[in-house]
Amino acid sequence: MSTDTTSPSVPARSPSSVRAGTGDPVPPADAPPPPAAGAAVVLDLRDVAFVRNGRTILEHVDLTVRAGEHWALVGPNGAGKSTILSLCGARDHPTRGEVDVLGSTLGRVDVQALHSMIGHVNPRHPLRTPLTIQEVVLTGITGTTEWRQRWEPTRAEVDRARALVTDMGLGGKEHEPWTTLSQGERGRTIIARALVADPALLLLDEPSTGLDVAAREQLLATIDAVRVTHPEVASVLVTHHLEELPTSTSHALLLAPGRVSAAGRADEVLTTEAVSRCFAHPVHVERRHGRWRASAGPGTA
Ligand SMILES: Nc1ncnc2c1ncn2[C@@H]1O[C@H](COP(=O)(O)OP(=O)(O)OP(=O)(O)O)[C@@H](O)[C@H]1O
User: Fold this and answer.
1) DSSP state of 244
2) Could you tell me if the CB of 55 is within 6 A of ligand 1?
3) Number of separate domains in the chain
4) What ipTM was estimated for this complex?
5) Which domain holds residue 153?
6) Which of 93, 156, 165, 300 satisfies CB 3.0 to 4.6 Å to 282 for a cystine?
7) Closest C-alpha residue for ligand 1 atom 4
8) Burial, 67: exposed, middle or buried (Cβ in 10 Å; 0-12, 13-18, 19+)?
9) For the whole model, what pTM was predicted?
10) From the alpha carbon of 240, which atom of ligand 1 is closest?
């Protein structure tokens, strides 16, 4: 599926309308950058609140993601990152405010149809049966964890799955069972699975979880490569660790518990001051060779 860059149902919003924070006037440094000319709005969260069991988990959250942008959601444990991701993936509805996903407003759309346009990379993919790598990738077409009974892929779908397996560096292993794959191989398999239905939006929930340093670096390189080969796809990646951000990260949203503390271009948001404020702890942030690093100690704000 390709993104409809002319969709009239998704009016472009002025960057100044995107608030970062709790309703206070927007400081210029926190405002998202001007959109890329003509890029479609893929995700639009407007003044979103999310309440569960009487507890406010998110409040006054605004986020606009355009085609080709690669957002990182960064924040401390329990800040609400996964909750935002579940709204972006049309898996939950906001308690207040509005969420547009791929041009449709949640609550007024069949979410099943949206799910098929969203690739979800969950390193805790709950598959238990020994499907092969190729079969796991093909379950991205049915949107199921297990193989759907009586479903047969077309030749074109099988070819596409094979091509993605090769792109992910798993060529020749397509018939190996999921149950014996390393965490790194699983990570690359679920990225291929997320891409097989040609999504307009890719959601990555802590994709480096459980990987050793070599597997993590391979996975981040894979994500960078996907962003080159699929330039129109927007992505949102959740992490606690700046070291786990791919170099291709273009934007970032810092989430302090329940609220946005900063949002915009990654280089303007991932700073010592802003990250320290978000984590309520002094953290020194630096960027080298395109990658970010956070540390405490000398030089910390
Ligand atoms: N269904 C629910 N009912 C009540 N509280 C919930 C529910 N779902 C999540 N929460 C709480 O909401 C808060 C935000 O959770 P969320 O998983 O979105 O945070 P997170 O930033 O992704 O956390 P982590 O980094 O630890 O994964 C947490 O305190 C969590 O316990």
Assistant:
1) G
2) yes
3) 2
4) 0.94
5) 127-198
6) 300
7) 52
8) buried
9) 0.84
10) 25
